Amino acid sequence: MAALPVYLVRGDQPVLLADAVKHLVGELAGGGDAGVMTEELAGDEYTVGALVDAAQTPPFLADRRIVVARDVGRFSTHDVVPLVSYLADPLNTTSLVLVAGGGQLARPLVEAVRKAGHVVDAGVPGGRGRATWLAARLKEGPVRLDGRAAALVGEHLGDDVDRLGSLLEMLAAAYGPGARVGPEEVTPFLGGAGSVAPWELTDAIDRGDTAAALTTLRRLAGPGGRHPLVILATLHTHFARMLRLDGADVADEAGAAALLGITGGSTFPAKKALLQVRRLGHAPVGRAIHLLAEADLALKGAVDWPAEVVLEVLVARLSALGRAAGAGAARTRRSGGRSGA
After folding, report:
1. 198-326, what's its fold?
2. Topology of the domain comprising 128-189
3. CA distance 54 to 65
4. Which of 72, 131, 125, 69 is nearest to 94 (CA)?
5. Measured on CA atoms in the order 237, 239, 243, 248, is the torsion positive or negative?
6. Where in the chain is CATH 1.10.8.60?
7. pLDDT tens-place values along the chain, 341 residues long
């Protein structure tokens, strides 16, 4: 790869962040000795001045010098002024790898990195990109998972993909590097199920799949650690979009996105809301809003139920609306098929 003067690596999960830094340093080193080429600054003792001095030092016994600075979020806007000045005219034999952490990143620093180098987001892509990301990491791993084992790992870990590395290392220790393992070999090492994305809950509700919706709810509240009111807010946003589209003169996804104020990103949530409100109809959408209001009052003390019970009852009732809509659509299709025979 063509080395740039500076990289900013950021992400929410420490394991993924560390993996991204390790991978980047390896790419920057190329065929050279990364240990010789790299200087690492970490902890509270190093200053921006020390970082700039390291960046301005020519390489020794190598063509390029790599300087890794950890937790650059601890530096204020005032602190990073010398570093921003350096990045306006950086040394072409140094690659800085700035690692997020320690606090909020100073905006002038992020802007300077974008001008002089590249920002690396050390996260997991959503949607289909997540499956691609997981497949790539499994391919690079120390053991070979068959198709069923890979699917099991992906479903079980959910959003907790920072556990993937340790899982693969345990499998390699148990069965040997390069071993091919299936679901039976993987299952004893999986541990507790990981969290999942909130859209998996709303998708299950929309399908009318009560069992899947309740399982997803428990994973959001358990491993995901989401507060009951946060989960309720997610459900309210989902159905409030349908309520706004109900009866509106909207013909397509773009029109739905405009009405909902979804701009500057994917309009897929608008498409989902439009399709679901057409599938459910006016009365079920109104019923869903009523159920959400009742659950909100219950969570705030109107009913002497544990929060998890309130949410489980709500999710079961919302799923029943989706299931009824699906059954109605199936009856309509069957009736239409007979009348056209």
Report:
1. Zinc Finger, Delta Prime; domain 3 (1.20.272)
2. Helicase, Ruva Protein; domain 3 (1.10.8)
3. 9
4. 69
5. positive
6. 128-189
7. 688 999 999 987 777 788 889 889 989 988 788 888 999 998 888 999 999 999 999 988 888 999 999 999 999 999 999 999 999 999 999 999 999 988 899 999 999 999 999 999 887 666 666 777 788 888 888 999 999 999 888 888 876 776 788 788 888 887 888 899 998 888 877 766 666 778 889 999 999 999 889 988 888 887 667 888 889 999 999 999 999 999 888 888 888 888 888 776 678 888 888 999 988 888 999 999 999 999 999 998 888 888 989 999 999 999 998 887 765 555 555 555 554 43
Q: What are phi and psi of 181, to 5 degrees?
A: -125, 150
Are the C-beta atoms of residues 48 and 32 closer than 8 Å to each other? no
Crossing angle between the packed helical segments 268-280 and 282-297, to the nearest 10 degrees: 110
